[in-house]
Amino acid sequence: MNNVNSSYNEDNNEIESKFKSIFLFNAVHDVMQTMAGISMSEVKITDSKEIHITDACVSGVYFMNGPKNAMLIVSMPTAEAYTMVSRFSGIPVSELGADTICDAINELTNMISGKIKSQLASVGYEYINSHCFSIYGPKYLILHKSKLKNIAKKYKAENTELVLRILFV
Amino acid sequence: MGIKILSVDDSAIIRMMISKGVKLMGYEILEASDGEEGLSVLARENKEIRLILLDWNMPGMNGIEFLKRIKAPGSAYKEIPVIMVTTESEKTSIVQAIQLGVANYILKPFETEELIKKIRLCLGGKV
Ligand SMILES: [Mg+2]
Predict the structure, then answer these.
(1) Dihedrals phi, psi of A57, to nearest 5 degrees
(2) Is position B43 within any domain?
(3) pLDDT mean by block of 10 residues, chain A; 169 residues
(4) pLDDT tens across B34-82, in order?
(5) Which residue of A31, A66, A95, A101 has the fewest C-beta atoms within 10 A of its own C-beta?
(6) DSSP of A135-162, one letter per residue?
(7) Nearest to B109 among A35, A90, A103 (CB)
């Protein structure tokens, strides 16, 4: 039984070590910089339970199919998502609708996962693409079993924040 | 007659960004949200399209399937240059796209300047 547990733990540590913090940061930083001219930095958090967005937020969800299947969730406060999308699309905030915001957050999540995927490939972890979907609404919670192995990170810039979660499913 | 460029991408926001860049260059933009729609636009425009900007991952007919169709022997659209605009950055993906005949490759996220530069490169000498 102990052997089973220790190999299970080693396996999970292996997964976490491949999903390096720097890979996640590089992905978020590059995408936000190129798309919106926003330079994000990581917020140091000791307990992953502290990671949440208090305002209403919009999330993009993406399945990463590979050696260990994972789900990537990227969340941003809705109001800030509107400002950001307006900035990179050139469309005034007043003319943007929920459809466009969801489409943009999907594409943003797609690009972030693309960057993570290519860095993982460079260390021998091949993932394939899937399609993304988004969650939008005034109030919702994203809950998962507490024992589900996960990585949660928060990034911040002057006017925006972004939460990235990876759930190993 | 103005130059027509076809953008095939399932994301409306990406098509908007591409459209902005293409219009800045003074060209006309046509849009499709998947491969099948792209083929319909090609058929409708009757060989007037000078360049295709193509996403890889789309629900329905994806970019690679679309590429195989238009580059197939006997296809009327074989000579239209294609620029892949995608998040697929692995070497194997790029090689696959090149083997299927893409003229250039843009990785998402991209800046409008890069898009314009690569469009110009593809249309070079023909404009
Ligand atoms: Mg796509």
Answers:
(1) -135, 165
(2) yes
(3) 54 75 94 92 81 80 93 93 88 93 95 94 88 88 82 91 92
(4) 999 999 999 999 779 999 999 999 999 999 999 999 999 999 999 999 9
(5) A95
(6) E-SSS------TTS-EEEEEEEETTEEE
(7) A35
Q: How many domains does chain B have?
A: 1
Any idea of the CA torsion for A49, A50, A54, A56, to the nearest 10 degrees? Answer: -40
Q: How far are the Cα atoms of B3, B7, B33, B122 from residue B71, in angstroms, in the given order?
A: 21, 17, 19, 17
Domains of chain A: 2-168 (3.40.1550.10)
B127: in domain: no
pLDDT, tens digit, for every residue of B55-68?
999 999 999 999 99
Minimal C-alpha gap between A86 and chain B (Å): 10
Q: What is the phi/psi pair of residue B32, to 5°? A: -145, 145
| Structure ipTM | 0.88
Residues in A touching B9 (Cβ below 8 Å): none
**Residue A24 Cα, ligand 1 centroid: separation in angstroms?**
21
Task: Identify residue A100 by its one-letter amino acid code.
Answer: T
Classify residue B25: in a domain, yes or no.
yes
The CATH number of whichever domain residue B43 belongs to comes to 3.40.50.2300
The whole-angstrom separation of Cα A69 and Cα A14 is 14
CA-to-CA dists, residue A74 to A109, A135, A141, B42, B93, angstroms: 6, 10, 13, 36, 25
